[in-house]
UniProtKB/TrEMBL annotation:
Pfam families: Oxidored_molyb. Transmembrane segments: none annotated. It comes from the Bacteria. Residues 35-179 form the Oxidoreductase molybdopterin-binding domain. It comes from Isoptericola cucumis. This is Molybdopterin-binding protein. InterPro entries: OxRdtase_Mopterin-bd_dom, OxRdtase_Mopterin-bd_sf.
Amino acid sequence: MSIVTRGFGGRRDDPGDDVPPGQFVTQDFPVLSTGPTPSVDEAHWQLAVHTETGAAHRWSWDELMSLPAEDVTTDIHCVTHWSKLGTTWRGVSLDTLFADVETSADFVMAHSYGGYTTNVPLQDLLDGQSWVAYEFEGEPLEPVHGGPARLLVPHLYFWKSAKWLRGLVMEDDDQPGFWESNGYHAYGDPWLEQRYS
């Protein structure tokens, strides 16, 4: 069951040419989740990258905070037709996290605290395209928006930017995650309106 909270209606501004087809611009930040918001204490938070060989790379919250961070300004696009322009985030690039990860796999399954999963091609996580984000608009990321840390893959529909991120598992095949198993598109390019399979 989805939880829909404040801001979902948004303000339907004329999107112009800055947003993908079928989207409207909102000034709010709608909250859409598949279940209750997990309570994740930073003292117990951990991120792990698991390769197809069984190797695991792990970071505690303090270890994540010690890595080089980047400030990112980007538009985000939800499959439910809203777009929010010029959002600002701070986080660690996946390029940094994958610097010592040896893998020949082409796909990643993102796992969240709370059980959510979503699949993303590895090539869409690297080369400055994605981050583990822990700040939004200069403030710590609120739990309802995926705090303490979420995946940020802004060039895909926002369901690919998994909230409450806890792990990335390398996979040889493109297996569907939660929404993909329920009829959403396997890739999710907003400019091609890849909403559903």
